[in-house]
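quick one before i forget lol
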Amino acid sequence: MSFGERLRRRREEKGMTQQQLARQLGISKSAVGNYETGVSMPREDVLLRLFSALDAEPNYLFQDSFRPGGGVLSSGEQRLVQRYRALSAKGKAAVNTVLDAVEEKHAGSVAVLPAPRPARRIPLFASPAAAGYASPVLGEEYEMIDAGGEDAAQFAVRICGDSMEPHIPDGSIVYVGREPLQNGDVGIFCVDGDTFCKQYYKDALGIVYLFSLNRARADADVALPPSSGRTLACFGRVLLKRRFPLPAGAR
């Protein structure tokens, strides 16, 4: 005997019409008819109300019958039904509300996809200077480029020269964020009007050193004692994938 046939027999044993059962389940009379003829199967939440309305055990209705996907109710599902039937009318209503909300959320999560985030654009400053120099001076010619996934990048500069090789090759573009530097960071600096890309270090005496990562170009290092009278400005920190050790004697 199929699920639909057992459902119809149990309904008739309870002296209920299809319309009366449909009213208790909160569905249409035609839906009950479809269940009994095998055209469709009730959803999980309707099944819970059905077992309660007919005062029927799950295994009775599903004996010799299979649900979509195969198999009769598992022991866990049977336990859920038993717990549902033990609830008060208010408790059953709360369970039905939760099931409806879960179904709506699941349907929404499948249907709605997040909109792609537009690519962020930042200025790339042009006209780089000599070895190790860069050019972030505001007012210079620039073009807008993709930030390259660097969320902290505020602008980019093109490096010219070999004083930062091989880590920052000649002609490469570096992304720069406007944030304070710590010892060992690589930054973009302006010294007396000239702009440099160098590794930053400040010692206990307040002397600022701007080092070349290419130690074969130590001649391009810059030292700025507090009493030098020279002007120093930092435009920001170069965003690199790794940190580099300071030259020997600077640590």
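fyi The helical segments are 3-13, 18-25, 29-37, 44-54, 58-62, 75-85, 89-111.
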